[in-house]
Amino acid sequence: MGYPATAHSDSEDAVAILPIATCSQKGYELGIRIPRPLGHGPSRFIPEKETIQVGKEDAMMHTLFADSFATLGRLDNVTLVMVFHPQYLESFLKTQHYLLQMDGPLPLHYRHYIGIMQLLKTEENSWSLAELIHAVVLLTHYHSLASFTFGCGISPEIDCEGGHTFRPPSVSNYCICDITNGYHGLDDVHASPTGSIPSMESVCEVEALMEKMKQLQECRDEEEASQEEMATRFEREKRESMFVCSSEDEESAPARDVSRHFEDTSYGYKDFSRHGMHVPTFRVQDYSWEDHGYSLVNRLYPDVGQLLDEKFHIAYNLTYNTMAMHKDVDTSMLRRAIWNYIHCMFGIRYDDYDYGEINQLLDRSFKVYIKTVVCTPEKTTKRMYDSFWRQFEHSEKVHVNLLLVEARMQAELLYALRAITRYMT
What we know:
The chain has helices at 10-29, 59-72, 77-82, 86-101, 108-117, 129-151, 176-180, 200-222, 227-241, 289-300, 304-317, 332-345, 356-361, 364-375, 382-387, 394-424, and strands at residues 36-37, 164-165, 282-283, 322-323, 326-327, 348-349. It is mostly helical. It has a two-stranded antiparallel sheet with strand order 1-2. A two-stranded parallel sheet has the order 3-6. Strand 4 and strand 5 (326-327) form a beta hairpin. Helix 4 runs antiparallel to helix 11 and helix 6 packs antiparallel against helix 16. The chain is globular.
């Protein structure tokens, strides 16, 4: 929760909040149940003091905050975490607004209903191709947004289930300056892996990763694997990705029971090649977003292909040339490994990529986090989030989530759009 920044002092903020606190206390005395946020900050995984503080944002962030507030009437928690990367947030908000609010094939109420109940599974009426494209893009948007929400531990909004409590606050835990700046107590004193003193082990992890990137680049320059070998490495990585899974006893965030929304309660993610069943590889050289999907979406749902393409490119190319405490680092190899690993899990292969690099750059804890966030995001835990890249900044881990979100969305779109293309021909 938050409001656009205004030009006044902290002391004025403190004065302004006193009547609110007094009214709240009076409400409790009168027996009025007044909700207050249950969590501390926009994320369960990121300490509130390490997020971008409202009032301390730069000009671009301030504009995004103002636009988001004008649309929603508040600053939602997704925005408050995603603003670590304002260039991407701008593209995301623009795309989401177009999909949900602007003129399009589907009526406005259908668009929200799809997000709630997966309308495509229950609607019996016939659909035009334009309506189908709109629905498919909405579904993939909601799916990927779920990955970001759980992957970054986004806290429920105050008016959502699990986002509020009616228990009176313990005033002894606060000072007025904490209330003014939005800090609510216990959660803010917990140590953060990225905010603590670097351990030798975690520093060594960063150095080792950078060394592997250097060695892989040298190997690329010296020799190139044959097409047969690269195909074998892809199949091996695809097969191994099936066995990457989290521990069953890990405690994830409480989830709402949504089974009433499904006719088939067993509906959910299943590994595409379980129990030895072979599924043909999806070759990007045969059907790609750039050469096929983009033009199909733009033809049937004008401008959306351009918006999606811009968002994909921003997420894939976004870099600040840093890795933890190191600067002036070319991270393109690492970003490509993350993107291609996600597509590999969905059976999508790039003929010109050596999948042997993935095992060199992504360790098991990182793979567990990636697969959980992409395939079963509701099972993501703080321990998973903390266990990979322990010396990296929270903004870098949010950056990882942007890659996961867009790679997942593009993978789902490729399968759906290829099916629609085949139907049209």
